[in-house]
Amino acid sequence: MDFKVATLLKASSGNKKLESVSSTIKVDRSEFKCDVEGSVLLTKTDVGVWVSAYLSAKIDRQCGNCLDQYVESVGLGIEEEYFPLFNLVTGERNELEGIGEDNFYIGEDNVLDLSDAVWQYASLHSSINSKCKEYCKGLCVDCGINFNKEKCNCRNNKKNTKLAALLGSFRPTD
Ligand SMILES: [Zn+2]
Ligand SMILES: [Zn+2]
Fold first, then answer.
1. What average pLDDT does this structure show over 138-163?
2. Ligand 1: distance of its center to the CA of 17 in Å?
3. Which ligand is in closest contact with the Cα of 152?
4. Which ligand is nearest to the CA of 64?
5. 43 - beta bridge partners?
6. How far apart, in Å, are the Cα atoms of 71 and each of 8, 105, 169?
């Protein structure tokens, strides 16, 4: 999700730019993919651009219970400052003191890419035991069918086999 910020970077601090977004975000180094919609307010700061984004994200997930894919909708409020790696006028690399690797950067092309931030914020939202629905019935341990969609006879068969085994042990011997 790219925003061209060259003009904003040239402006004096306090200048704002409001963008509405509707796009699909993919992060190359992960399986992450989601659709986002919302608005992004970009404000010029002393050194960079402050991002205030209010997004509704539809995130592809896999249910930890039945392993089905499902879509989770989350609201993301992103507040981050982005720092330009290069000086817009001189083209030289900026010396940004006290700004570590955890920060977000604006690349050489003066494009601010919000994808990583969306990914990070969305990851915070994801629970370890994600479930497709509150009462997901999960999978049958014997035949693997999805109890949300189908039924199977494994449990009954098991009972029957147990019963048969039990009856078998009582079979009179001659
Ligand atoms: Zn499920
Ligand atoms: Zn079964």
1. 85
2. 41
3. 2
4. 1
5. 16, 50
6. 35, 30, 51
